[in-house]
Amino acid sequence: MQPELERLGVHESVELVFPPSELAEFLSDLPVDVAVIDDDEIDSCDAVVTLEHRDAFLELEWVHSIQAGVDRFPFEEFEERGVLLTNSTGIHDRWVGETVASYLLAFARRLHRHVANQQERRWERPEWDDGFTLPGTTACVVGTGTLGSGVAEVLGSLGVRITGVRRSGDPVEGFEEVYASEDLLEAVADADFVIVTIPLTEATHHMFDAEVFDAMADDAYLVNVGRGPVVDEPALIDALETDSLAGAALDVFETEPLPEESPLWEMEEVIVSPHCAAFSEDYYRAVGDLVRENVDRAERGESFHNRVV
């Protein structure tokens, strides 16, 4: 059943990514009332655009997540209540791809060490053979959907050989070779970089564990821009501390914010970013375009784009 929309709320939780007022202003030309709302105003809306979940959303007609990942939303309850859930898959591919490329370039050209040295006013050149170039290296992208394909496109343009992992193992454009998920250990064995772009599900929780890190080369790097719990963090820390891996770039973590006591903060070959790989000045516009399209579809009685539930 199509939702009947009169008032659309932009929930204050999107503030963690962009000002909610920017999105509300961008959508002010819609044929529905659009307003920035807090938790106390949810029941005044028919639909909401949000980053976080609130139980009060279960009384609405439609919820749109500004992220592609929707593991924080209770699917079964949404289905039981007849609440539509849509996400923002498809808008982050280039942005995340460029962030991943920046991680790889930092490791290759030792930029992360120069930045750390600068903080201590230390003039310290790297060893003559520390640096390398990306052409000729291999990146195994685990997750060949929209996000993984965006990463593959950007890295491919830098001369990186791209392989992938997906459940079926079927070929995907932009990937030189694709492995089935059951062949993950084989897939990561010869990669210089292993890039995690898969969503969090019961099947992917701690998919990257000690066995996977043992299968990776000891001069390989792990990059996680998917979801934190996909990686067994204690196992990763152990692999890094025992030099079983060369390093890691992590944008997502099992606990966020990353606790102050985490050893990841102080590891020289680890780059920590605060779950912001997709941040861009155009984020709210891209989300707004998706919302506008679905408001139009609701008026025409058509099925919603990016519908999850």
CATH homology superfamily name of the largest domain: NAD(P)-binding Rossmann-like Domain
Mean pLDDT: 97
Uncertain spans, ≥5 residues at pLDDT below 50? none
Q: Could you describe the largest sheet, including whether it forms a barrel? A: 7 strands, parallel
Helix/strand/pairing category: alpha/beta
DSSP E strands, number: 12
Task: Please write the CATH class name of the largest domain.
Answer: Alpha Beta
Q: What is the total domain count?
A: 2
Strand content: 15-25%
Helical residues, percent: 25-40%
CATH fold-level topology of the largest domain: Rossmann fold
Order of helices and strands: EHEEEHEHHEHEEHEHEHEEH
Shape: globular
Domain D-isomer specific 2-hydroxyacid dehydrogenase NAD-binding: 102-277
Keywords: NAD, Oxidoreductase
InterPro entries: D-isomer_2_OHA_DH_cat_dom, D-isomer_DH_CS, D-isomer_DH_NAD-bd, Dhydh_Halo, NAD(P)-bd_dom_sf
GO molecular function: NAD binding; oxidoreductase activity, acting on the CH-OH group of donors, NAD or NADP as acceptor
Report on the structure:
The protein has 309 residues and is an alpha/beta fold. The chain folds into 2 domains: 7-91 and 280-300, Rossmann fold; 93-272, NAD(P)-binding Rossmann-like Domain (Rossmann fold). The protein has helices spanning 20-26, 75-81, 93-109, 111-119, 146-156, 184-189, 210-215, 233-241, 283-300, and strands at 7-11, 33-37, 47-50, 62-65, 84-86, 138-142, 161-166, 177-180, 193-196, 221-224, 247-250, 270-272. The strands form 2 sheets. A 7-stranded parallel beta sheet has the order 8-7-6-9-10-11-12. Strands 2-1-3-4-5 form a 5-stranded parallel beta sheet, with helices on both faces. Helix 3 (93-109) packs across helix 5. The longest helix has 18 residues, at 283-300. It is globular. The two termini are 12 Å apart.
